[in-house]
Write a structure and sequence with these properties.
With about 210 residues, the protein is of the alpha+beta class. The chain has 3 helices and 9 strands. The structure holds zinc ion.
C-alpha cells in the first residue's frame, strides 16, 4: 500500500525522517533501517534513462495485501502498483504508476516478515518434524515428509534470507510502493530492470 501521508522524496522509507541520496546503502539515524536512496532523472540531470523500448518484457511480482493481492510491475514505460481482484487474482482493479522519465527518487530496502516467521515456526515446522519422526516408524510416511520438509526449507529461506523486498518510487505526481520478493526467481531481474530503466546504476539490496 502506498503511504497515506504525503512523503518527501528524500526520506527514510520507514519513518520518513529526512535523508540524502547516496550511491551506497545508508542507515536511518531515527529508526535504524538500512536502505538505498537514489535521486532520479527528474532532479539529477546526470541521470539519463535509456530510450523507451516497447519490446522490453514486463516483470510482474505479487504480494499479499491487507485484503487482496497486490501486483508490482516493471513495465517498458515505468513502474506500476495495483490491487488484483479477489476472485481470480489476475485482474488489476486499480493501478497507479510512475513513468521512468518522471522519477524524483528511488528507495530500496528489505524487511523481515515476523508474522510469517512465527506462523512458519508454529505451524509448518512441527508438521514437518512430526512427519519426519513418523517416517522412522512408518517409511511410507516419507511420501508426505519429503515434500513438506522441502516446502518448510524453502519457506525459511524465503522469510529469512530473501525477506520482503520493497522499492518506493517517487514521481512528480505519485508515490508507488512496490514489493518484489515473490516469485523469488524474478526478484533480481525486477530490481536490475527497475534501476536500469530508470537510468540508475544497480546497487545492492541492503
Ligand atoms: Zn527511519
Amino acid at each position: 500500500m502506498p503511504p497515506a501521508a504525503p512523503v518527501g522524496p528524500f526520506s527514510c522509507p520507514s519513518c520518513f525522517a529526512p535523508a540524502s541520496a547516496a550511491p551506497t546503502p545508508q542507515i536511518c539515524g531515527a529508526c535504524g533501517l538500512a536502505f538505498v536512496l537514489r535521486a532520479g532523472s527528474r532532479v539529477d540531470p546526470t541521470i539519463q534513462p535509456p530510450a523507451y523500448n516497447p519490446h522490453l518484457p514486463s516483470i510482474k511480482m505479487r504480494s499479499a495485501g491487507l485484503v487482496v493481492m497486490q501486483s508490482s510491475i516493471v513495465a517498458p514505460e515505468g513502474v506500476l502498483q495495483g490491487s488484483l481482484d479477489p476472485i481470480t487474482g489476475r485482474i488489476p482493479m486499480d493501478q497507479s504508476g510512475v513513468p521512468f522519465g518522471d522519477i524524483v527518487s528511488v528507495a530500496i530496502w528489505r524487511k523481515l516478515d515476523v508474522v510469517r516467521l512465527v506462523l512458519l515456526t508454529l505451524i509448518l515446522l512441527p508438521i514437518a518434524l512430526g512427519l519426519l519422526a513418523l517416517s522412522v516408524a512408518v517409511p511410507a510416511a516419507l511420501i508426505a515428509a519429503v515434500p513438506i520438509g522441502l516446502l518448510t526449507g524453502v519457506s525459511y529461506y524465503h522469510v529469512i534470507a530473501v525477506r520482503r523486498n520493497y522499492a518506493r518510487v517517487t514521481g512528480s505526481a505519485r508515490v508507488v510502493q512496490l514489493q518484489f520478493d515473490t516469485p523469488m526467481r524474478r526478484r533480481r531481474a525486477f530490481h536490475r530492470e527497475l534501476m536500469r530503466r530508470a537510468g540508475l546504476p544497480e546497487s545492492v539490496i541492503p
